[in-house]
User: Fold this.
Amino acid sequence: MPLGAHQSIAGGTPRAVERGVEVGCRVIQIFVKNSNRWVGRPIDRPEARAFRSAARGAGLARVVAHTSYLINLASPVAELRRRSIEALAEEIDRCRRLGIPDLVLHPGAHCGEGESAGVARIAASLDEVFDRTAAAPIRILLETAAGQGSCVGHRFEHLRDILGAVRTPRRVAACFDTCHVHAAGYDIVSARGYARTIADFDRTVGLGRLAAIHVNDSKKPRGSRVDRHEHIGRGTIGRRGFRNLMTDPLLAAIPKFLETPKDDTLDLDRKNLATLRRLAR
Assistant:
């Protein structure tokens, strides 16, 4: 099963591969620069070669990246949207250098302008980004959102509409975050509710367009629209919800990435991965 976790790039991107291997990851997710800054340090050729070599040597089934948290393609503020487009194009180039095919993106926040306006801005912004990065056809994975504030993506229809509006559909797909979907109000805990939710996603977005799953429990209750990740089995999704996910044959081949809380060691990743593997039996 392609199961792993988000890993830190502290000390250089190759260190993320080493950390992933140490905890038994088959897949990893990384940031390609500081997640809270517009500008990152350059990735030179030796580092890019070292990362590619480390990922190949580790036999990782998949590496994906996650964009910085500053990017907001839905913003009605022209300057912020311009910076977001430039930043996303630059992160795509970083992925190209590192050989990472997929980049997860939070769709963005409409800041009071309305969901339909936000969806339209996101699609138009992605078109501009894809025009700028035609030589680096990295795929953007639009992540489901919890629905905090004015964030777009807490309904499957938002992702459907963005994916349907983008002029280059081969460059977009979806990422399903369990904590976000739960916080947005979808039931993934009861067996019947889980089946309905996955069927709804398939009908609305399409399981064929699902390229990654973020596996996170939730500190907050279903429908809270608050994004707070928790360790597997210790939140309001609980073991029952993750057993639904981990035993679902429809999702067995889709890479799954932990984004659960960490400390200064890798022990928490080990524990969460072990819990998920037990639930998959």
